[in-house]
Design goal:
This protein is α+β, with helices and mostly antiparallel strands. The chain is built from 31 helices and 31 strands.
Length: 825
């Protein structure tokens, strides 16, 4: 019940609410008995009665917010929720407005908005999830709400300048739902509870099936007397009642909610089949005549629950693996404070501090190695089991294992901003979106159920005319054999397995449509710097112009100017200048920093306008300067060239194998780079010869190129890492960002390559194609099975127990076919 606590509160504060002798009926909102006619309200032009002022107020709130459709789905027959929010609890909720408290479950989704992940208690049906999303979206400052019915996880995105998190909690509490900050261990408890419930249902159905089948064999043997057979029938009835009530109970509740919502789900035909067979068998037992099919009811329920359980296990693998990543992070770590190492709670660690990670410990934060050398196992994040050596200046990610020796790390990101939490958030985003294939399958199952029920009714009428004594059991067989379980399981199980398999190999799917789009890719475009290349630039030379010497600038001075210009940049070149800067040297103070996409950077100082970037940008109006070279950037002051910096960036070791593997799959590879030099690694010269190398492109030109290819019928995927790649990553049909890329690129992309092994892209396309192939196989099998089984059942050649086995085996075949995606190269 969404607001039962309001009912109890109102009754406590209104002693006259209960009037003896008043007519007894159920509250329209909460389902509790009504003993007072005073509380009435018009809902959808129908006068409704409420048990108290609290329920009537809750209903009025729902109506005032335009959420009247809630009562189409609402099922009031549920247990009362928790009591109202007390003043003490209200004060506790205010703590959630503090940034240090939010750090554990809140992340910044963009410069203006925050996203919180919450666990919701009290959700019992689709009406609850619908109401939560609609009600929270109407709050000022709340822009997005995604509720995952499977995990009871809710992601809320809001503007902290317009709304507080404590008010969002209060809004949920006002509807009667308890909200808590999401923690992996809580979701694991919920998952284990669901698993225990499935096992209980399986155990009850399994025991009932075995005993009922033994009784059926005895009955069909024909050697029993009338009294003994009746006794066996009653024994089978007693065994079947728990199966129908407990094991099959969720099917009946789901079917009833679907019918109330005017929607035909596959549970409607399941409930009809189980309920009809049980009711007919019950009547035959009570009247001591006719056939009983208790064994069919038990067998049908057992195999159906087994199929659902396997689907549940497959679907929750992704959530379980993601939770394990976050739950294994240490709760404390050693931090350097007040001149000594102190062990502090992880939530108290702030960016900019230094921590010590001992050998054998998991790194709890994202940061940069300050001192020490060690090897880190990153397989939890990237799927790559070969350890990576880390030295001063290298990046270390949260969730990676220090294998060799103690190492000091400068903290950069903690809590919800860390890589481990980012992986979970991206997985949750993908899980909250339903891909086109799944939507088509759901829509197809809806129409399939409707047409099946019509056909079944027609078959029943024909058998009533031909052989009335067989009509009922033929109808039961038709309902069972045509249950669209396999059709509904055909898509979600496959997608869950494919997503988890790719995650284990270092590719995170962050959008629901990604696998569908990857399967159709014909062209793949790479950014060059930081994508095909390592992105680890090294300053190999500094050429000073005569003007620089005349003005008295030294090599160190100009490197300091470059460092200050790159201060706000996330480009790999910025790190090269910082590493080249002498220890203790100070950077020049500049202001009015500006970024010029695909050109360079500029800022103002006491001497005038500084520019750092490509030749045409930095050297406007300059006289002479060195010839353009690959990996060279120029520094100018007021348009006059002062220095040319030579930088080197090596090709990734996985680049050539990846390009060859993609070409083998029939995918044409391209390079889209903003580098205007036109220089290309000799090993990639064949791309220039085939016209697939495009240089000097701005962000808009990259997107125009993708759109042009799409107009020519190509399905283009884009791989990038920089800020200037964000528009094309967001605009491409499917896109992949490198884990070392900027946050903007990661948010815009449809997938994230954690291990930075480009060969994983070829594997992803193979998996996507295999996923589409398996989904088609499952759909074809489900339709073919129903197409063949329906005529046989309609002719009366299939008994209900045979139909139950056939339907269940069909569902298990679909789930087993999906599990093949666990075994990919």
């Amino acid at each position: 019940m969404a607001a039962a606590w309001q009912c109890h509160a109102a009754q406590q504060h209104d002693p006259d609410a209960a009037t003896p002798g008043a007519m007894n009926r159920d509250c329209f909102h909460c389902g509790l008995p009504v003993s007072d006619e005073r509380y009435r309200l018009s809902v959808a032009e129908v006068s409704r009665t409420f048990c108290c002022a609290g329920c009537m107020a809750a209903a009025q709130t729902i109506l005032d917010n335009g959420l009247e459709a809630y009562y189409r789905f609402h099922d009031p027959n549920q247990a009362p929720a928790s009591p109202p929010v007390s003043d003490t609890e209200r004060d506790k909720l205010l703590l959630y407005d503090r940034q240090d408290v939010q750090s554990e479950f809140v992340s910044r989704s963009d410069p203006h908005n925050l996203t919180a992940t919450l666990m919701i208690e009290g959700v019992s049906c689709s009406a609850c999830s619908w109401l939560i999303e609609k009600h929270l979206t109407q709050l000022t400052g709340v822009s997005q709400v995604h509720f995952n019915q499977t995990s009871h996880r809710c992601q809320v995105t809001w503007n902290p300048d317009q709304q507080t998190l404590s008010n969002i909690f209060l809004a949920l509490f006002s509807l009667g739902y308890r909200a808590h900050p999401y923690r992996p261990d809580q979701e694991e408890v919920l998952r284990q509870k669901s698993q225990r419930h499935y096992l209980l249902r399986l155990g009850i159905a399994g025991i009932g099936m075995m005993q009922a089948m033994m009784n059926a064999v005895a009955i069909y043997s024909g050697s029993m007397t009338g009294g003994t057979e009746l006794l066996v029938r009653w024994a089978s009835l007693v065994l079947t009642i728990p199966v129908v009530v407990i094991a099959a109970g969720p099917f009946f509740r789901s079917a009833w909610r679907s019918l109330r919502a005017r929607h035909l789900s596959m549970d409607v035909s399941v409930a009809l089949a189980i309920g009809s067979a049980f009711a007919a068998s019950l009547w035959a037992t009570l009247s001591s005549g006719g056939e009983v099919y208790y064994e069919s009811v038990n067998m049908f329920t057992f195999f159906l629950v087994l199929g659902r359980f396997l689907e549940f296990r497959a679907r929750n693998t992704v959530h379980a693996s993601g939770n394990a990543l976050a739950s294994h992070l240490p709760a404390t770590c050693e931090v350097w404070r007040d001149g000594q190492w102190q062990r502090q709670a992880l939530r108290d660690i702030q960016p900019g501090e230094r921590i010590l990670v001992q050998a054998g410990e998991l790194c709890p934060v994202d940061g940069t190695v300050k001192t020490g050398h060690s090897d880190f196992d990153e397989s939890r994040l990237t799927g790559e089991f070969k350890p990576r050596s880390k030295a001063p200046g290298d990046t270390v990610l949260a969730g990676t294992l220090n294998q060799s020796q103690a190492i000091e790390i400068d903290v950069e990101r903690t809590g919800q901003e860390s890589s481990a939490s980012s992986v979970m958030q991206l997985l949750e985003r993908a899980a909250s979106e339903k891909p086109r294939m799944a939507e088509l399958a759901d829509r197809g199952a809806h129409y399939f159920v409707g047409s099946t029920l019509l056909i079944t009714a027609l078959i029943g009428l024909i058998w009533l005319w031909v052989a009335p004594d067989r009509a009922f059991w033929v109808v039961i067989s038709v309902l069972v054999v045509t249950c669209p379980c396999a059709l509904s399981l055909a898509t979600p199980t496959v997608l869950a397995q494919a997503t988890n398999s790719l995650r284990q190999r270092g590719l995170i799917i962050t959008r629901g449509h990604t696998l569908d789009q990857l399967a159709s890719v014909t062209d793949l475009a790479f950014d060059k710097t930081g994508t095909l290349t390592e992105g680890h630039f090294v300053l190999t030379g500094v050429h000073l112009e005569a003007e620089a010497e005349r003005k008295g600038y030294t090599r160190a001075d100009l490197i300091g100017v470059a460092v200050e210009l790159e201060r706000t940049s996330e480009h790999p070149i910025a790190r090269a200048f910082k590493q080249a800067q002498a220890k203790g040297a100070h950077s020049s103070e500049l202001f009015d920093h500006q970024r010029h996409p695909a050109a360079g950077l500029s800022a103002r100082g006491e001497s005038g306008q500084w520019r750092l970037g490509h030749r045409a940008f930095a050297c406007e109006g300059s006289a002479s300067h060195p010839t353009s070279q690959s990996g060279t950037v120029w520094l100018s002051l007021n348009g006059v060239t002062l220095a040319a910096f030579s930088l080197n960036d090596d090709l990734r070791s996985s680049a050539l194998p990846a390009l060859n593997a993609l070409e083998t799959l029939g995918v044409r590879c391209h390079i889209l780079t903003g580098d205007p030099s036109g220089e290309l690694d000799p090993r990639l010269a064949y791309l220039r010869q085939k016209g697939r190398f495009n240089y000097g492109l701005s962000a808009e030109q990259k997107l125009d190129w993708v759109n042009q290819q799409a107009r020519q019928g190509a399905q283009v995927a884009v791989v990038g890492d920089g800020i200037n790649d964000a528009p094309v990553l967001a605009g491409a049909p499917v896109s992949v960002a490198m884990s070392s890329g900027t946050d903007l690129a990661k948010q815009a992309a449809d997938a994230l390559l954690l291990n930075e092994n480009l060969s994983t892209l070829a594997l992803a396309i193979v998996v996507a194609r295999k996923t589409r192939r398996i989904i088609r196989q499952n759909m074809i099998w489900a339709l073919l099975y129903n197409g063949l089984a329906l005529p046989l059942a309609a002719l009366g050649w299939v008994a209900p127990w045979q139909a139950a086995i056939g339907m269940s085996l069909s569902s298990l075949l679909v789930v087993g076919n999906a599990l093949r995606l666990r075994r990919i190269a």
